[in-house]
Amino acid sequence: MMFPQPMPQTPHLACREYVRHLEPEYSLLWRWSEKADEWREHLRPKLVELLGFPEQKCDLQIRELETIEGEGFNRIRLAYNVEDGIGACAWVCVPEKNEEPLPAIVCAHPRGSGKDELVGLTGEAPADAHAAYADELARQGYVVLVPDARCFGERLGDEAGLSAVGDLLGRPLVGMQVWDLLRAVDYLAQRPDVRLRRIGVAGQGMGAIHALFLAAVDERIACAAVCGGVSTYRELIVARDCFTQCAPPRDTVPGLLRYADLDDIACLIAPRALMIVQGRQDSSVPPAGAEECIERVRAGYRLMGEQVRFEGELVDGGDVFHAEPLLKFLDDWLKLPEPDVGGQVSK
User: Fold this and answer.
1) pTM of this prediction exceeds 0.90
2) Does 323 fall in a domain?
3) Closest by alpha carbon to 58, among 90, 88, 86, 82?
4) Residue 7 belongs to a domain
5) What pLDDT, in 10s, does the model give residues 277-325?
6) Which domain holds residue 174?
7) Taking a C-beta distance cutoff of 8 angstroms, is the pair 149, 157 a contact?
8) Residue 233 phi/psi, 5° resolution?
């Protein structure tokens, strides 16, 4: 007796099932758990390749455009070059009393009005009481740099168009944005009032993803604290049904999921400190994906013997900056004393 053959799956269903069972080539927990050092040596250069960074750095050519006096700190608007022919704009917040070199933080902003949102200059009452946390960090004794991401703030442009052209050129938009953060670290590293081994990064939403990628590829970052928008890509694709009913995220890297998921990217930060705080009601990611990502990063840090350097929390709330735990985490790791050459502790 002949039985009818099952109908083939539709393309998006087949793709979803493929992703559901995918094991990326450089997955730390699935494939490389017994050789973490070798895993790092393979994944980091592959990530840099996929992000499409320029081969050489240009001179920053820093220009100070204006200074605004704040309460206990000065806010300076900067312009500088990130690539030949491409400039960037940023606020740098500098405490007034900085006789000794200070720890520093790069703040990566979420979607919205760009760098002005993190320093309270949007002219609007923010829904998030801690939206202007860059000012708060400066008052607490940090040199804080808040750049505009490409297509936001003073660099406003057609995000979709730049993303499409970037993909054709092998330079995804998220790679351009992470490159700009790397140049922000270059700026901080040349300031005499910054402690070179105490530079951190903080990010929310879109900025959280940028911050994770930055810390993964730039070992000058001593500590990363991120909030919102964090999920494994696999669960995001499965839960959103291959984005058939919603727009896909802009911060994707072509080809990345063949090699690694976001938890693997986060584990590249080890042995440096990392904190992920994710709101349970954050609509930008599925709750299961957020929980999976945090637990996989926790397992990765534990595998490498660095569990004390990772904190992950699922908290009540949506896409807001959960300032209290994140700022405390930054203090705990960036205000540590450093051993000097002779083994003595110096501040």
Assistant:
1) yes
2) yes
3) 82
4) no
5) 998 888 889 999 999 999 999 999 999 999 999 999 998 877 777 888 9
6) 24-336
7) no
8) -65, -35
